[in-house]
Amino acid sequence: MTISYSDTFVKLLFRWKGSLWKAIWRHLLVFLLIYYTINGIYRFLMTPVQQEVFVKYVVLFDSWTKEIPLTFLLGFYVAMIIRRWWDCCQLISWPDHLLYNVSALIRGNDDPVAFDFQAETRIIRKTMARYAILSSVLAWRSISLRVLARYPTERHLLESGLINKEEMELFRKIQVNVDPHQKWFVPINWIQTMMIRCFERGILSHTNELRVLLDALEKYRNGFFQLFIYDWIAIPLVYTQVSTISVYGYFAFALIGRQFPSQNEYREVVDLYVPIFTILQFLFYVGWLKVGEDLMFPFGADDEDFEFNYILERNLEIAYLIVDDLHNQVPPVYVESLDEKLMHTKASIQLSNHPQRQHLRKYKLDPGAMMISREPSLKRGNTIDLNIFSKDIFCLKNLHRVKSIRCRG
């Protein structure tokens, strides 16, 4: 998942996991090795005549690097990828909304051994929760490397308890010729059928209750479907190629164009052994490109990819809490007045407090202006005296009727 950070800026510079340094250190090392190899050849192996020719190429290559609009290309490219990455993050399906509706509308929480009406509804809720988690595993293992490594085959699903033998036999009988991985919708279809049967048997008393459950189920399903679309349709390859070739082409020319020759007749520069500004540019542009490359496919196993395994564990625990442990559970109701002011700790009371305040709180009318008047309302063409206000502010609903304003003093 995206690396969380809340330290100061200085501490963040030395973070390694998910950092710029981890993303580009290999690229920077290769660049500097080639750069100093060319520099050594120029200084120690070339004849004076060859050095003069090399200096001309340095000036030429440096001028070419100025013609590549890296900022323009990378700006649009990375902005599009980040927007796509955030959309994928928003489409991760969480079962909370669906199961809260299931718990609220499918009532009953009795002894699970006695298969009466109450116990049956408990089993129905838990089965729906299990199917919801099963559908997420089936969907995410088709797009996420983490989930695929955890549940590579149907046998692993069976051993994990997410599906039993009877359900597995029924699941295997369903044939999807277009793509076998598209069978993730089957558990959702089972949930839908269970909801309809609950309505037919009277567990759901009204069609509106069934509609609420079906709408929540549809929203839960759409998250998986949209993630499949994002995984299927990637950023156009030509756009990625243009951005990548531009960046690496720029620094390929910079290997020669940013050399500092000892002959300064073409440009007056100090003979530096460390290309400081070129290294900074490498950090900026290659790091910028790596942001796009890392976020383009957020379903892998990199530092910035989505942690689907944690999400699965969290969803499974919360799902059973909602439909079983917390179902019909509420503390005893008691009558006790709450203090008007909530408590503070010594640490919190020292923090600045900015209560809500209206911008007109300091403006007041003069005492004479607050006297009740029986005069008729303003008519078009009347004159208003602004001195009735003490803070040079005028606010009147009938301002559009006023023809002129007179200020004294």
Automatic annotation (TrEMBL):
Topology in membrane: Multi-pass membrane protein
Tagged with keyword Transmembrane: yes
Keywords: Cell membrane, Chloride, Chloride channel, Ion channel, Ion transport, Membrane, Transmembrane, Transmembrane helix, Transport
Signal peptide: none
InterPro entries: Bestrophin, Bestrophin-like
GO molecular function: chloride channel activity
Subcellular location as annotated: Cell membrane; Membrane
GO cellular component terms, A-Z: chloride channel complex; plasma membrane
Transmembrane residue ranges: 20-38, 68-86, 232-257, 269-288
Domain of life: Eukaryota
Role according to the record: Forms chloride channels.
Family, per entry: Belongs to the anion channel-forming bestrophin (TC 1.A.46) family. Calcium-sensitive chloride channel subfamily.
Protein name in UniProt: Bestrophin homolog
Gene source species: Angiostrongylus costaricensis
